[in-house]
Amino acid sequence: MTTGENSVQSKKSIPDLAPVEAVLFDVDGTLCDSDPLHHYAFREMLQEIGFNNGVPIDEEFFVKNIAGKHNHDIAMLLFPDDIPKGTKFVEDKEAMFRRLASENLPPVKGLYKLTKWIEDRGLKRAAVTNAPKPNAELMISKLGLKDFFDVVILGSDCEHAKPYPDPYLKALEALNVSKDHTFVCEDSVSGIRAGVAAGMPVVGLTTRNPENLLMEADPTILIKDYEDPKLWAALEELDKRGGSFKTAA
Prior knowledge:
This protein is an alpha/beta fold. The chain folds into two domains: 156 residues, HAD superfamily/HAD-like (Rossmann fold); 69 residues. The chain has a six-stranded parallel beta sheet with strand order 3-2-1-4-5-6, sandwiched between helices. Strand 2, helix 6 and strand 3 form a beta-alpha-beta unit. Helix 1 packs across helix 4, helix 3 crosses helix 4 and helix 4 packs parallel to helix 6.
């Protein structure tokens, strides 16, 4: 499947997807509140090497330049004159992140309520992430979701990572489902843009990123977490309109 194929913006609402076939999740910030750990690791390690004249990076810099982006793009942004150094730096940073995440990785509030809703309806599901494979495996395992996902799609396994639609298009292909009956959960501008470009409605989470910034990426709805009444009103309406393919199977 090529990048351009099916990559048209969707103006569908969640209930318009009935009967729903699948739900696609980002991992960092969408399944778990991991951004503070990433921010901490980047801040500490960049300060150590004197980046920004030794001034620690703030939340604004992290959100604008790092959150949701693929490591190759981060390396190029932080070390434009020395990509090998940037690549080594982000690899070391990820090792630090994994040490931190293995000790404390809180799920986004209401996550297991939504995963149960998905399981009860027999929907297909995929994790779609720009994170390196060891990170993705650690987070999914720590959250107890190893057996929940049918497939895990990595940005590094695609021709282009998010914000391009490739990872989401690959997930649709792997699950053998239609974009017209699938929605995405994302927390970053990069990820929301990828889901929208792949032609699916995106549920945007304001886990850490500012609402005004996320709105620029055109999510279908924005929610605080998975207990947000806006989400459940949409899912209730979806059920009323025909629910899932499970009943038709």
